[in-house]
Design brief:
Number of helices: 6
Helix content: 25-40%
Order of helices and strands: EHEHEEHHEEEEEEEEEEEEEHH
Structural class: alpha+beta
Shape: globular
Number of strands: 17
CATH topology of the largest domain: Jelly Rolls
Distance between the termini: 21 Å
Number of domains: 2
């Protein structure tokens, strides 16, 4: 499921994070990928060991924790703390698929079900830098306002086009969902949002309760720990 989640961060939160990042020391983004990724990746990244990365990751995770649309769409079980990258001067990331298993800071493993990019630069401040996600319906071009999030299956082939003016700055991270299968996760999301709409429009209460029961029984049947 490819989903745009607006306003994950407020304008003030984006400004604060950008102020910290613009003064940060960046490193070669190839340090955090394997041999195949290193062949097509050309960007800058905040070092994983940077205290600033830990601080800003906590801010992003706090904002995500209060976003109901994000939770409905991802049903997160484990989340890799966000990393931060910067593309400028022709920087790009060629077509690739994200690694299937990643190490969390506590030593546990995370299965990457969902990839997430949180944009931290407004589109008019840079040229290029579109995220291209390829699936069975073709290629989707994504370039969102600062503070907005895109989520998509980690199994998707995707790339970042070269940045020819300005700087594309973003946070990115992966989620292991309670629901491994993307199609099931989409069905649960659509059912959840339909229940919310029916509730807000004053639909028959008994029918809403019945649908809510179906949602939770499906979640109970499909969820993995």
């Amino acid at each position: 499921m490819l989903l745009h989640i607006p306003d994950v961060l407020t304008a003030d939160q984006v400004a604060h994070i950008r102020q910290r990042l613009d003064a940060a020391d960046w490193t070669d983004g190839r340090e955090t990928v394997g041999a195949q990724g290193a062949k097509v990746k050309r960007n800058l990244q905040l070092p994983d060991t940077s205290p600033l990365r830990e601080e800003l990751a906590r801010e992003v995770l706090k904002a995500l924790a209060s976003n109901p649309l994000y939770h409905a769409a991802t049903l997160p079980l484990r989340t890799l703390p966000p990393r931060f990258n910067r593309y400028e001067g022709g920087g790009e990331y060629g077509f690739h698929v994200d690694g299937a298993v990643m190490a969390l800071p506590n030593g546990e493993q995370l299965r990457s079900d969902i990839s997430c990019t949180l944009f931290l630069a407004d589109p008019e401040t840079y040229d290029g830098g579109e995220l291209i996600v390829s699936d069975t319906y073709g290629e989707h071009e994504i370039k969102l306002p600062a503070g907005d999030l895109i989520v998509y299956p980690s199994s998707s082939l995707h790339r970042v086009l070269p940045v020819t003016r300005g700087a594309r700055v973003a946070a990115f991270f992966w989620v292991q969902s309670l629901i491994r299968d993307d199609a099931r996760r989409r069905m649960l999301f659509e059912l959840d949002t339909s229940i919310q709409t029916l509730t807000h429009t004053g639909a028959d209460a008994a029918a809403v309760i019945q649908l809510t029961g179906i949602y939770h029984n499906l979640l109970r049947q499909w969820a993995e720990s």
